[in-house]
Design a protein that fits this description.
Elements (H helix, E strand, L loop, with lengths): L5 H4 L3 E4 L5 H13 L3 E7 L12 E6 L1 H11 L4 E6 L9 E3 L3
């Protein structure tokens, strides 16, 4: 799906907020890394009317550097409350990021 724009993504950050399996998250992370793209996988923990409210949380995993660089933008969607080191949410590396 991203192949047509691969060249224009190098050095940029990609945030995926679609549904998928842990395997798909890891595959997307590997693809992004191989193309010089920073990657975050995310989960929306609200219904569409809740997007934009700081009372709603969004969960992210992937590059801490990308998370910190884009945190302000992500906070417009809702509270970017959790960051995990690698896609697929390993609990041992998850920590609370806001509050």
């Amino acid at each position: 799906m991203l192949e047509p724009v691969t060249g224009s993504l190098e050095g940029r950050h990609l945030v995926n907020l679609t549904s998928g399996s842990p395997e798909q998250a890891r595959e997307m992370d590997a693809w992004a890394r191989s193309h010089g793209v920073g990657y975050l996988d995310g989960a929306i923990m609200t219904t569409p009317p809740g997007v934009g409210s700081q009372d709603m949380m969004f969960l992210y995993s992937g590059s801490e550097e990308v998370f910190q660089a884009r945190r302000e933008v992500l906070s417009v969607l809702g509270d970017p409350c959790t960051w995990a080191r690698t896609p697929a949410w390993p609990r041992s590396t998850t920590r609370r990021c806001s509050g």
